[in-house]
Specification:
Helices cover 79% and strands 1% of the residues. It is mainly alpha-helical. It folds into 2 domains: 290 residues, no CATH class; 34 residues. The longest helix has 40 residues. The chain is globular and about 55 Å long. It starts with 14 loop residues before the first helix and ends with a helix.
Length: 352
């Protein structure tokens, strides 16, 4: 790992950076398991936050290597669990273009990764992801498109061409900036795939990226004295994946997606403001608020739902006479409100 000469940050073998890396890996893999959202994007944002706080060097290459460490065990574990959904044709279509372009992106990383414009390019990518996520939410709220092509369709050259272009761009972005998701998100706006098969091919693609990029970067970026941080990254990734799988059925996906969009926009501003201390601090505050809201809002809704259920359960324990009296009082009160509401238009029309 190389850093800017004037960078002041905590060593990787220190407890602070190791603890922050553990928490970041949990958050990233939790979002990935619960929503299918790219863990690498969230870890890139957290790494830049650490740079603003003076904890990490903030370099893209350092973040990518840590992403490889955090994703390794999770990706292999997920691929083993989903092995019965493995499709050789999809594996070849998705991974061949990515394998060809990822080394090109890694070469760009080695040459331009420390340039400030590279960090700003990552900010533009995050803004693009936010726009795609927003479009997906709007599209899901309306009528679902029924004419999307099946990615598993055989004999359709347009499907193969779309996959090749998307995964080629994905490999280039993964190699250079560490994020492979944006081209795939665009692909899924126009194509669909069986959920289990898609999860399997996604896990297989992550494994291929980790193996290839791990070899390309591991020679220079692996540091034995950082073993504590590496161990906590891997452990945090597994914990986050497990928690995400458990929480997935109980999460309000629409609300979580909205807060993730705000988090992405704040993270993009954080990347774009690299080098400007004041704007970086404001963007970091925005990221913190969005991250807290994305965690607390769904939890608050679930707590309110549990309180309503508990209130109904307690009311069911009351005597029948008391329950009937309360219901009659509620009905009379609601009928009074309806009568007053019906009088409002007549009064307003007479005034006009």
């Amino acid at each position: 790992m190389t850093a800017a000469p004037d960078a002041l940050y905590l060593p990787c073998d220190g407890p602070v950076l190791a603890a922050v890396s553990f928490a970041s890996a949990i958050l990233a893999e939790f979002a990935g398991a619960a929503l299918g959202f790219g863990p690498a994007i969230l870890y890139e944002i957290s790494w830049q936050l650490c740079a603003v706080a003076g904890i990490s060097d903030g370099q893209i290459e350092s973040a990518i290597w840590n992403i490889i460490v955090a994703e390794a065990l999770c990706s292999f574990t997920q691929l083993i669990l989903l092995r019965k959904h493995f499709r050789l044709r999809l594996f070849v279509l998705f991974n061949l273009p990515m394998v060809l372009m990822l080394p090109v992106g890694t070469q760009l990383l080695g040459r331009f990764g420390q340039q400030r414009w590279a960090k700003r390019a990552l900010g533009v990518v995050l803004l693009t992801v936010a726009a795609v996520q927003a479009f997906s939410c709007l599209r899901a709220a309306g009528v679902q498109a029924s004419n999307r092509r099946d990615l598993q369709a055989r004999g359709d050259w347009r499907v193969a061409a779309a996959i090749a272009v998307a995964m080629g761009c994905s490999g280039l972005l993964r190699g250079f900036l560490g994020v492979a998701g944006p081209p795939v998100m665009v692909l899924l706006l126009f194509f669909h795939c069986d959920r289990s098969a898609w999860r399997c091919v996604g896990a297989a693609s992550r494994v291929m990226m980790i193996l290839l990029q791990g070899v390309l970067l591991g020679v220079e970026d692996y540091q034995p004295h950082c073993w504590r941080m590496y161990s906590l990254l891997a452990a945090g990734g597994l914990v986050g994946m497990g928690l995400g799988n458990l929480a997935a059925p109980h999460i309000d996906g629409a609300a979580f997606q909205q807060w993730l969009i705000i988090l992405l926009v704040s993270g993009a501003l954080l990347m774009l403001s690299d080098g400007n201390a004041q704007v970086s601090i404001l963007s970091a505050v925005g990221v913190g608020v969005a991250a807290a809201a994305s965690i607390l809002m769904p939890a608050g809704k679930r707590a309110a739902r549990l309180l309503r259920v508990r209130g109904q359960w307690r009311e069911g324990l009351l005597p029948v006479e008391v329950q009937l009296a309360r219901r009659s009082a509620q009905i009379s009160a609601s009928s009074g409100e309806l009568q007053s509401d019906c009088l409002v238009p007549e009064e307003s029309s007479s005034v006009s």
